[in-house]
Hints:
homodimer, alpha/beta, six-stranded parallel sheet, 13 strands
Amino acid sequence: MKVRVDSPPPLPAEYDVVIEAGALDDLPRRITASGTADRYAIISPDPVAALHGEPLLVAMRNAGLDAELLAFPDGEICKTRETWAALTDRMLALRFGRDSCVIAVGGGVAGDLAGFVAATYMRGVPVIQVPTTLLAMIDAAVGGKTGVDTDAGKNLVGAFHPPRLVVMDPVVLGTLPDAAFHAGLAEAVKHGAMLDAAYFDWIADRASAILQRDTAELQQLVGRSVELKAGVVAGDPFDRGRRAVLNFGHTVAHALERQAAYALPHGLAVSMGMVVEALAGEALGVTEAGTAGRLVDGLRACGLPTVAPAGDTHELMAAMRIDKKAHRDAVHCALPRRIGEAAQAGRGRWTHEVADAMMMDVLMRASRGLDVV
Amino acid sequence: MKVRVDSPPPLPAEYDVVIEAGALDDLPRRITASGTADRYAIISPDPVAALHGEPLLVAMRNAGLDAELLAFPDGEICKTRETWAALTDRMLALRFGRDSCVIAVGGGVAGDLAGFVAATYMRGVPVIQVPTTLLAMIDAAVGGKTGVDTDAGKNLVGAFHPPRLVVMDPVVLGTLPDAAFHAGLAEAVKHGAMLDAAYFDWIADRASAILQRDTAELQQLVGRSVELKAGVVAGDPFDRGRRAVLNFGHTVAHALERQAAYALPHGLAVSMGMVVEALAGEALGVTEAGTAGRLVDGLRACGLPTVAPAGDTHELMAAMRIDKKAHRDAVHCALPRRIGEAAQAGRGRWTHEVADAMMMDVLMRASRGLDVV
């Protein structure tokens, strides 16, 4: 005999991303109005916990909300199953039940880690994402990806766990260190390069105002990137097809990060990775000639690195092959057709196979950096 | 500004449960026909790996499927984050990619553990559940619950990850040890007690034939229990309301198991737990008088224990309070109105608060076992 079991979708089927100056101060009021949960666990890495976590905790308690602050050591090196287990155990020790909600306050590491804690705590409690870095705002916080790293690579363990709500306050970007700010810009340039040529040009044009952290300018930057990413995510929530276009630069970037033992900031790795992959795209004939050069100009206007480190290319190739996007050991990359447009590889496929010899060649060319422009 | 992000449901929205003599032998053909994945990781506890995992591996490879067998040490004691991490790392070392599928072969521990590996492997790969115990067939394998235990309690870490397919072969129950078989029967009695009085009576009536492992009888038992459970799960996939009726007996059972350091089989704990909770229901006036007695008769016909161990009731109460179903420290139980019908507690609520003094009283009465019948 055969029994058919209905397995209806999880809730919520959609969520809001609020992008507003002052949104962080307004969070307790917003939470009170929505009545998300009985108890709140604010999870935040050490420095951010002091800067934004503590004030939020006080504001939430003043608003009559039951909240605790759980800090953890900062850095990609702590985005592990061990930190995830420790945070989970602290929530259990504090007797958080199924009516709890996690609030992730911090950069991409906090969002991924706290999101994975929420995804797996008593089989899933809601998470509110409060990204406080540019990179987290325009990349990590939207799309529901959560997870941790293992020795074998980044984000190899995790879950899709869409947030209940995302709150972005451009004001907090005023205190973001320059290096972290630059890193986020790389992902914005990626959105322009793959999805919207006018946005790509706007970023290059307004780069100096953006770098001066003008709040209105930042709100526009974050808003457009979130719109673009949300559009892609909605069409491919589980990353089985077109969402791969958001991985432009990432096959090489992940390998560079692994080679640098994650000491290289993600955004800088993506910046270099996009140049390498655009060169590969041109060599494949997938990407229009001149695209890599235009990309380099845009990245340079933003103060982003465009020259890949001259490392061991064989080691880099090995690191690339373990990447999730590697199918049966061949390296695959998402590539632009031209600035503003992603190149489809075939029906439902958005990554292009790059032969090892070609990849090693463009890696070496990009590490010289001279013949690019 | 505000951006609305669509977050469509994961696939599949429904799945089949195949209950057939010979279904296990037929699995490679079925998998080949459905083309679920590129590679298969069969995850199975040590003794079951030898008994059912190895033959399945050989059959799959003979059918041209790319499969590996990953065994792990048996027992609830191994249903931990550590075993989950070790299995994940072995899959990573074997270079399983996103196009993989996990096949869980074994009892409830294998299903929960392998299901959680699948739920979190590269943010989720499909799982095919192949339960080989009666308990796993009628309880764990349907409904999508996966997870592991921590020191703080059972199933406190996990995810909802509905299987792609569930395959149950009643023939394998022929080699199941008596203790494990009895344990599964307790959950079948629970289905009858909460959902279907005719089924409750059928089990009591056919108990001796069922205990002799007649294949046709077993197919009927498993089939009806799966139908009943699937109906409840479909109406409440994320366990926020009526699915709680499946927890009848479990608030007390989990505490008994924790007190016994998980040396007490789950099904036996559930059998005792149902008697204790039915007594509590009668004391509350929620459950019709005589229900506990009728329940004891049915359980005895199946050779199941109905007398609770005379342990430290204060310790048991503390163990109950950490249970996921405890709201704000009050102990809650799902209860029958009468045999065959669950008692609703209020709009959307299916668990009833049991005061500590009352719970301690019925625990002591059930440990004497005399005044029950």
